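Ticket #4471: structure export looks truncated?
Reporter: QA, pipeline team
Priority: medium

Steps to reproduce: submit the single chain below to the structure queue and open the exported record.
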Amino acid sequence: MVSRRAYVLVSTVVSARIPETATPAACPFAGRSVPEPDTAWPARSQRPPHARVGAVSAEEHRAAAPAVLSFGLITVSDSRAKADDVSGRVLREGVVAAGHRVVETALVPDDVAAIRAAVRRLLEQPGLDVVVTTGGTGLSPRDLTVEAVTPLFDRPLEGFGELFRMLSYQQVGAAAMLSRAAAGLVRDRAVFLLPGSPKAVALALEALILPEAAHLLAQARR
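Actual output as written to the record:
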């Protein structure tokens, strides 16, 4: 049951009137002419490059990117030797098959100092564009690649890890959350940290790194 006080309050609000002297707020655009649609924005061919948006802009960036990149590849493992480094071989063959150059390969143990030193040494090489590591991105006590390399990043690329785990989920299900695959820029060079599984390496290389590495570097070097 509604109390008499509540009824009076509601009745008062409903019966309120806007003062007769109130006037509408002035429109800031009143009296201004509105350009016709065909003159409101230049034709696509007449727009400055920075004004072009969407897929066309991305394709233009890719077209302007270097066609051949130089890669440095590092396998991180305590147990592998060069003879049985399957993931390293998948990396090397994939990069070469795509028309890029492999400047150097290395095999280092699961040790923060050793991993960091190997990455730094590659980044110091003139003309190197991309460093890719495989191994050490899981959650075991000896998985130390992320701890060793991410402090070197000037700009992390969070989207790489997000996309990799999304794609990996389609292959391995919820176990994809155990991967700490990551990427970042060190100055104007790209660094990718991949799991040690050959299947994961092939996935990251074919679906993410090879299609976008040149575009990424073109943006970083603008």
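Status: closed, not a bug. The export was complete when the record was re-opened. Leaving a note from the reviewer for reference: Residues 30 and 159 are 45 Å apart (CA to CA).
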